[in-house]
Design a protein that fits this description.
mainly alpha; 69% helix; single chain; 0% strand; 3 helical TM bundles of succinate and fumarate reductases
């Protein structure tokens, strides 16, 4: 009896809080989900992005306000919080860009093997994380 295969669990009603955390998501699925999350983050923060762009190009005085937001803060938000939001935007943009290029490449090349999907997903995560760390270090004045 010990040689008998253990029956696989059958999920008919999936509970998001108890069942989903136990799933083992493939790396390609995680990158696909992060692509969607990063796109949503950029859309939700679009008013902030427009405000930053407007302050940076309108006039010399508004550029001074733009620069001051990163040194002294703006409104009720301290400078470190604005830098964290901008860092989240940097990550969202880079991950969304690299994951989008990955999806386009997979569509064009038809390289849909499991190994290539895992490798390309890992490269998206590594590239976006590495560039986010480099640009974040510049944003926080480490170099």
């Amino acid at each position: 009896m010990s040689d008998a295969a253990k029956p696989k669990p059958e999920f008919r009603n999936i509970n998001a809080f108890s069942d989903l955390p136990s799933f083992r998501w493939p790396l390609a699925a995680l990158v696909s989900g992060m692509h969607r999350i990063s796109g949503l983050l950029m859309v939700l923060l679009l008013p902030f992005i427009i405000w930053l762009f407007d302050k940076s190009v309108s006039s010399e005085i508004s550029f001074g306000e733009f620069s001051a937001a990163f040194t002294t803060g703006a409104w009720i938000f301290p400078a470190w919080f604005i830098k964290l939001v901008v860092l989240a935007l940097i990550w969202a943009y880079l991950l969304h860009l690299f994951a989008g290029v990955r999806h386009l490449f997979l569509d064009v090349s038809h390289r849909t093997t499991k190994a290539f999907g895992r490798q390309s997903a890992a490269s998206v995560i590594v590239l976006s994380a590495l560039l986010t760390v480099i640009l974040g270090a510049k944003l926080f004045g480490l170099y």
